[in-house]
Amino acid sequence: MAADTLVGMTRIDNTSASDRQVAVSVRGLVKHFGATKALDGVDLDVHEGTVLGVLGPNGAGKTTLVRCLSTLITPDAGTAIVAGYDAVRQPRQLRRVIGLTGQYASVDEKLSGRENLYMIGRLLDLSRKESRSRADALLERFSLTDAATRPARTYSGGMRRRLDLAASMIGRPHVLYLDEPTTGLDPRTRNEVWNEVEAMVRDGVTVLLTTQYMEEAEQLASELTVIDRGKVIASGGIEELKAKVGGRTLRVRPADPRELRPLAAALDESGLTGLATSTADPESGTVLVPVLSDEQLTAVVGAVTARGITIGSIATELPSLDEVFLSITGQKASTPQDARPELEEVAV
Amino acid sequence: MSATTLSPAAPTIRVDADPKIGLRGHLRHTGALIRRNLLWIRQDPESMFDAILMPVVFTLLFVYVFGGSIGQALGGGQDAYVQYVIPGMVAMMSMNIAQAVGTGFNEDFHKGIMDRFRSLPIGRASVLIAKVSVELLRLLVATSVVMVVAVLVGFDINGHWGGLFAAVGLSALFGSAVMWIFLVLGVTMKSAQSVQAMGFLVMMPLQFGSSIFAPTGSMPGWLQSFTTYNPMSGLADAARGLMLGGGHPIAHGLTVTLAWTAGLTLVMAPVAIRKFTKKS
């Protein structure tokens, strides 16, 4: 079965993705708030059964995009078609086929997890019995059974997000919007949420995911659309974009700190094609080298050992969102910020 | 900008008939949301206390502290004042329902749950109708408690049960009209506290510059011209006429109350609905 072959594999390579049917099609979407152009002509496609990552800094227009696609706001111009329904002309039909998990958990804090899910089942026209069994099944699946009868306000941040995801899944949506699903979560909780999202994708749900984190897009999405100031500034398969950005950064630390400069010089002289200049970082005692492929990575290690320099430690790092922006636009993101997840939880 | 992943052809648009939400659907949705608001009360029983305690405290305060002196002016004593003030309390409770709906909406908007509701295929009015239904229920419970207290402090309904129900109904009707103002506040203001503070600012002069607690005859002329058209006076006077019978004219109070009810609904309901549906 086709579904079985997808198990354990969330990244679908680019060629097969564009052969698939389009589940979400956005063309020339514009939304102004007063003088602010939150969306300034956005075009994008999400193919059936894939995850599109919409990457951008705060204020790029990601949330506005999701709100237009879930009929919470009406765009000023352009079209958005989701599972064959026009967001402006057929909002009621569209609401039947989508699930939405917002940036802040949209569950009723005063109700228990089970009551939250039961209520949404009833609002989605499931029978009482069906609502109950669906609620219990989803509580089980999202590991919330033990907390099922506790009010949601007593849940941890991660539990709330999971409840929120469960709530979005009650109606078996065709298309799921995840608006910064892990913003403000600690790394462990973030991994939990990622696992749940991957499981949903294996079930065949089409996902539009917005995120500020390159790492998250890398983990979940097969294709990426980078937006800034309401405009799409790049789009394509993850690998394609990574190549554009310069891929990973290799951080090499010589065993002997005095060999830092010779190491940097060795790498520059190695003359590897496409290799950008390396930079020595005396503060951390490491040299940073952008690498595009595994072959280049191997070549770098080869060049270093050929010079007789002993490597103390070596690590690869993904480009941060800032680096992505820097390389695509040649300028800083509109609101420069640390693209790493914060450790403390955002109060919701 | 690369556009390599965009499909050249626009996807076909499905043209199935607009699935209208039938009456059964609306009832199911409203029922689910009423259940939600009732569960809130179970979670937070103090909220019920707020609605009940204030009218009870006001009743006791006014009857025992001011009742004797105002009663004398009415040509009796405390007993005469009890008869005067209890219909006023029934009128006053119209405000609670309005305020509770406004603050409840404000909380929903700030918690993000409203986004969930608005992205579901339900009639948006269901959220509002559910809230109003639960507040009406709360009004009935609170009124029953106040009536028990009223009887304990010596109120005599004198067989005007029909009048009592009519007064409670009129109070609920007017409360629903005031509710639109609070809905606008609820949708536009930053926090539930500011909705409450703003509500207090509006309600204070309307409640105390009225015939709820004392006859307006001894008030200065400028205040009397305010009380004559104050809907709270109108509502209190009408409730008095309905609950006490003879000697208390109903016509003027009823006209003022109904005129305000119609006016507020006509002006504020469209504003509230527009703000509610457009809120982004």
From TrEMBL, chain A:
* Keywords for this protein: Antibiotic resistance, ATP-binding, Cell membrane, Membrane, Nucleotide-binding, Translocase, Transport
The family note in this entry says: Belongs to the ABC transporter superfamily. Drug exporter-1 (DrugE1) (TC 3.A.1.105) family.
| Residues of the ABC transporter domain | 24-254
What is the phylogenetic placement of the source species in the record?
Bacteria, Bacillati, Actinomycetota, Actinomycetes, Kitasatosporales
Membrane topology classification: Peripheral membrane protein
> Where does this protein reside within or beyond the cell?
Cell membrane
Q: What is the originating organism of this protein?
A: Streptomyces beihaiensis
Q: Which domain of life is it from?
A: Bacteria
Q: Which Pfam families match?
A: ABC_tran (PF00005), DrrA1-3_C (PF13732)
Q: What is this protein called?
A: ATP-binding cassette domain-containing protein
User: Major place of localization?
Assistant: membrane
Q: Which NCBIfam families match?
A: drrA
Query: Which Gene Ontology molecular-function terms are recorded?
Result: ATP binding
TrEMBL record, chain B:
Q: Which PROSITE patterns match?
A: ABC_TM2
Question: InterPro entries from the xrefs?
Answer: ABC2_TM (IPR013525), ABC2_TM_bact-type (IPR047817), ABC_2_transport (IPR000412), Nod_factor_ABC_transporter (IPR051784)
Q: Chief localization class?
A: membrane
Superkingdom as given in the UniProt entry = Bacteria
Q: Answer whether the UniProt record assigns the keyword Cell membrane to this protein.
A: yes
Q: Which residues form the ABC transmembrane type-2 domain?
A: 46-279
The UniProt transmembrane annotation reads: 52-75, 81-101, 136-155, 161-185, 197-214, 250-273
UniProt KW Magnesium keyword: no
Q: How does it sit in the membrane?
A: Multi-pass membrane protein
Q: Name one Pfam family in it.
A: ABC2_membrane
**Which residues, if any, are the signal sequence?**
none
Which UniProt keywords are present, listed alphabetically? Antibiotic resistance, Cell membrane, Membrane, Transmembrane, Transmembrane helix, Transport
Q: What is this protein called?
A: Transport permease protein
Organism of origin is Streptomyces beihaiensis
